[in-house]
Structure formats: structure tokens, C-alpha cells
Amino acid sequence: MQTSIDIKILKNAELMLRICMIITLLVAGISKICSQGGFHDYYLLQFTNSSLRIQLPAIIYDAYLTMIPFIELLIGIVLLLTKYRRIFIVIWVAYFISLEVGHYILEEWMAVDAMIPFVLLGVAAYILPAHDKVIYS
């Protein structure tokens, strides 16, 4: 009976998780850019709703909503580089926690719960040993 998991299997699991992360962010970023401001405008209206319990200046929301598609593309592209994967997996986790905070502010409780698996995906990818494929730099 084998008591440990082969390192090759763990590295392949890391690669599959990272590919999933890359596709998720690249598709999300491109989709937001192609919305021609629809994403930005919709969420800016939601965040500036006067009935929300947490009120922050609109410029904070405006700036972050403008940056989101580019943040997603940047993280997705750099996750292709095995050399920088750990730091950008940490950035992935921080990014999804920021989205979770946004959904808390909007009082969208189901969306808050939906962010948890994305954070755990990053944690799992961080723990696993790096696969030497995708792009090593």
C-alpha cells in the first residue's frame, strides 16, 4: 500500500488548478472590457445606492471598478509564468477577498458565499508543488 502521493500527481493537480484560475480571470477580464462600460456602470450604481449600510465615496468604487478588468487580465497572464506563481496566487486570493468585501457592502449574501471556493482554489494551488509547465520563466 502506498502511503504518499506521487509528486508528479501533485504537480499535475497544481497545473490543472492554475489553468482553471488563468481561464477564469482571462475570460472575466475580457468579458468586462467587452461590456463597453456596462459592468462598471451597473456596479457603480449598485455601490452608490443610498440605502446601503456602508457608504464610501463614489470615487473609491469608480477607481476600483475601472481597474478590475485589467487586474484580472494581469493576474491571469502572470499566472502563466511558473516562476511568479506563488506571489500571484496570493494576489489571486487577496483579489477574491476584495470581491467578497464588495458583495458584503452590497449585502449580496449568496455572492459572498460564492467567493469562498475561489479563495480556496487559490489556497490549494499555493500549497501544491509547482508544475514546470505552462510557461516557465
Keywords:
137 residues; mainly alpha; 5 helices
Plain-language structure description:
It is a single chain. The protein is 72% helix and 0% strand. The chain has five helices and no strands. α1 (7-34) crosses α5 (109-127), α2 crosses α3 and α4 (85-105) runs antiparallel to α5 (109-127). The longest helix is centred in the N-terminal third of the chain and has 28 residues, at 7-34.
Strand content: under 5%
The stretches of 5 or more residues where confidence is low (pLDDT under 50) are none
Class per helix and strand makeup: mainly alpha
Radius of gyration: 17 Å
Describe the largest sheet: none
| Succession of helices and strands | HHHHH
How would you state the average pLDDT, rounded? Answer: 92
- Distance between termini? 38 Å
Helix count equals: 5
Which secondary structure elements does this structure contain, and how are they paired or packed?
Layout: H1 7-34, H2 38-47, H3 58-78, H4 85-105, H5 109-127
Sum this structure up briefly:
This protein is an all-alpha fold. The protein has helices at residues 7-34, 38-47, 58-78, 85-105, 109-127.
